[in-house]
Amino acid sequence: MAKPVEFWFEFASTYSYLAAARVEDACAEAGVPLIWRSFLLGPVFAAQGMNDSPFNMYPVKGAYMWTDMARCCDDLGLPFVKPSSFPRGSLLAARIAAAHADAPWVGEFVRAVYHANFAEDRNIADDGVIADILDGIGQDSAAVCAAATAPEGKARLRAATEEALERGLFGAPSFIVGGAMFWGNDRLEQALRHARAA
Fold first, then answer.
1. What is the domain range of residue 37?
2. I want to staple 141 with a disulfide (CB 3.0 to 4.6 A). Which of 6, 97, 133, 134 is the partner?
3. Strand pairing partners for 97?
4. Number of structural domains, the chain?
């Protein structure tokens, strides 16, 4: 039996947009179970001595990334608009994805939040935007947000971020299969092969 692929993602992460758009279908096609793992990159970057996205700290790298994102989105047939603010806060969305990681609609929610940020330039730090997204996928936004912002919901995201640090994650997207980590959207296929070989 194939091992599950843990998909570790952050809503502010550009390359996680690419991975989130295809990971669910790719896992289903490969017959590999998928585990959605929302976490926050801020504490991970802080542990590495950074207080901003590396793409902002190193402008040359950032300029390349935006060009590369446009190319990658074109290759995948994904819409792309460079956000007017980067990185955007995503605390509520991250809490929802962590608190409802096992919900059948979580993949649709994750993709919709990424689409709002990187295809429509909507402010995903705005609770109203997140509520609109939830309503748009047929969920009770008030109930979902209440569960995610309750002490238990907040604790799930906090625990996931602490786990990410303990397991040595340093960026997103990351895929973990057993004890093996694969970093970057372009490592999804490698992670799937590893899962199937297991």
1. 5-197
2. 134
3. none
4. 1
Distance of CA 162 to the CA centre of its chain: 16
Query: Which two tokens mark 103?
Result: 């919900």
In the predicted model, what is the mean pLDDT of residues 149-176?
Answer: 96
> What is the pTM assigned to this prediction?
0.95
Please return the burial class of 16, using the count of CB atoms within 10 Å of its CB with bins 0-12, 13-18 and 19+. Answer: buried
Provide the residue type at 144 as one letter. Answer: V
Q: Which residues pair with 124 in a beta bridge?
A: none
87: phi > 0 → left, psi -120 to 50 → alpha, else beta; which? beta
- The rounded mean pLDDT for the chain is 96
Tell me the two tokens of residue 98.
């962590």
Q: Which two tokens stand for residue 68?
A: 């590369």
Q: Containing H/E element for 176?
A: strand 174-177
Model confidence pLDDT, tens digit, residues 35-62: 999 999 988 888 888 888 989 889 999 9
Q: Which segments of the chain does DSSP mark as H helices, in order?
A: 14-30, 41-47, 54-57, 59-76, 91-99, 106-118, 127-136, 141-149, 151-166, 188-197
Residue 173 preceded by cis peptide, ω within 30? yes
Q: Which residues of 64-103 are buried (b: 16+ CB within 10 A; e: fewer)?
A: ebeeebeebbeeeebebeebeebbbbbbbbbbbbbbbeee
Strand order from edge to edge, sheet including 34-38? 34-38, 5-9, 174-177, 180-183
**Which CATH number covers residue 79?**
3.40.30.10
